């Protein structure tokens, strides 16, 4: 072979070895050609999107207290022995969370009444000292994000978005409060949460993981429930709900109620009862895992129990 051709063959072989080494190095560094081009131009490659932390990350069980008022239902859950009369709530919790000795919960309390903020802040501090996880959200829940007018009334409702006629005629105190679309909040902060592999406090799991809801939101259930159903959040994310539907003869005085922006008016409790039955039928049609108990536990409404203190 002539000397010039032999030299060309040698150079081509060396070039092949060099390129092979370069591509192996690129593979080891997980760098592709486009990254190298971007780096030569002084442009850093776009980082991979990072997962946004969720409020319920690290929570095995989740309890949502909607219309928390003073937060006694969270106390029924964490401190059941202090509340012997709360047998409705305690039975419901045991059915879905397991025995009361299990304390692997995160509680999220939604309450729009600003008068209850100091109470929930004190509760959060006391529970945090115990190693319990209580999160207070100073807002109401609805089917849209925004604000809503709430009224301070002098009857058993206390604070409501649906006042009786006499309240409006007498110009009872009112104020705008934030409202969170519950279906979106659950999707954003609970769905896909990072569930611990080991029980909180080292205890074994009895059931779960579970997402359980107590709902007492004074007629806003007529907006929230349909939205939870239509978005699929109820059937996908929520295992059980204990809720008061305001549609019995005991609630006749609350009607009529109207949601003009939703084109919804309920003239009396029988129309509300029909709407409730339609919601429950739709849930059944969808073969939901969600169990719904139409009850309310008003025991220990004024609480009065001291905050827990960690052992010395």
Question: What does the model show?
Answer:
- A hairpin with a 6-residue loop joins strand 5 and strand 6.
- Residues 25-38 have low confidence and may be disordered.
- The chain has helices at 3-28, 33-40, 72-78, 87-97, 117-130, 165-169, 182-189, 221-230, 233-237, 269-285, and strands at 61-66, 105-110, 133-137, 140-142, 146-152, 159-160, 174-181, 211-215, 240-243, 257-259, 264-266, 291-293.
- With 312 residues, it is of the alpha/beta class.
Keywords:
312 residues; six-stranded parallel sheet; four-stranded mixed sheet; 10 helices; globular
Write the layout of secondary structure elements.
Layout: H1 3-28, H2 33-40, E1 61-66, H3 72-78, H4 87-97, E2 105-110, H5 117-130, E3 133-137, E4 140-142, E5 146-152, E6 159-160, H6 165-169, E7 174-181, H7 182-189, E8 211-215, H8 221-230, H9 233-237, E9 240-243, E10 257-259, E11 264-266, H10 269-285, E12 291-293
Parallel strand pairs: 1-2, 1-8, 2-3, 4-7, 8-9, 9-12
Antiparallel strand pairs: 5-6, 5-7, 10-11
Helix pairs in contact: 8-10
Can you summarize this structure?
By secondary structure, the protein is an alpha/beta fold. It is 36% helix and 18% strand.
* Structural category: alpha/beta
Q: What is the total tally of β strands?
A: 12
Distance between the termini: 93 Å
- The H/E string reads HHEHHEHEEEEHEHEHHEEEHE
Uncertain ranges: 25-38
How large is the share of residues in beta strands? 15-25%
What integer is the average pLDDT? 82
Q: Give a short account of the largest sheet.
A: 6 strands, parallel
Globally, the shape reads: globular
| Rg | 29 Å
Helix content range: 25-40%
| Spatial ordering of strands, largest sheet | 3-2-1-8-9-12
Task: Provide a count of the helices.
Answer: 10
